[in-house]
Amino acid sequence: MGLFGKSSEKPPKDLVTEWSQKIRKEMRVIDRQIRDIQREEEKVKRSIKDAAKRGQRDVCVILAKEMIQSKRAVTKLYASKAHMNSVLLSMKNQLALLRVAGALQKSTEVMKAMQNLVKIPEIQGAMRELSKEMMKAGIIEEMLEDTFESMEDGEDMEEAAEEEVDKILFDITAGALGKAPSKVTDALPEILPLCCCGFRR
């Protein structure tokens, strides 16, 4: 029998070092994903400005909803980085405990962090594999699949859009759109569209 009730192929210290390296690798994946999303956001902002100049508020609304989804995605990715940092800190604590107790200890903090990390699509595979290794080592207990994480997104999207679209349009177009209406279904402000032929859509 090994330190964890089962035979272990690697010493506990090596396991902790390996887990920390894997976490840092996946953090770099998250960083790249955030940068990619933010680059796409800039493209969407430019598209909103172009649509605003043409007086196409309906197009602006659709694009603004895309921005809401992007910002939510970035928020979740930053939250996942916070969970990863929590795991890294716990790994440092495990090394300290290992020197004193001679064995790795079960950690509820790591358990909670890993439960959140296995829900992130961009790193899901790696985090599931890592959680299996940690379960085998006795750091965490077996985790149940949580299938309800994304249910609220579809249900709340329209309500969130009603509250946020006009603000986004106002910010991006410097007040040309979104200054007066409280809902995205309201009429265009009288100053738009800016059309040389004088027609209003």
From TrEMBL:
Family: Belongs to the SNF7 family.
Entry keywords, A to Z: Coiled coil
Xref: Gene3D superfamilies: 6.10.140.1230
Name under which the protein is recorded: Charged multivesicular body protein 3
UniProt source species: Pagothenia borchgrevinki (Bald rockcod)
Pfam families: Snf7 (PF03357)
rRNA processing among keywords: no
PANTHER family with a match to the protein in the record: CHARGED MULTIVESICULAR BODY PROTEIN (PTHR10476)
Entry superkingdom: Eukaryota
InterPro entries: Snf7_fam
Coiled coil: 20-54
Lineage, broadest ranks: Eukaryota, Metazoa, Chordata, Craniata, Vertebrata
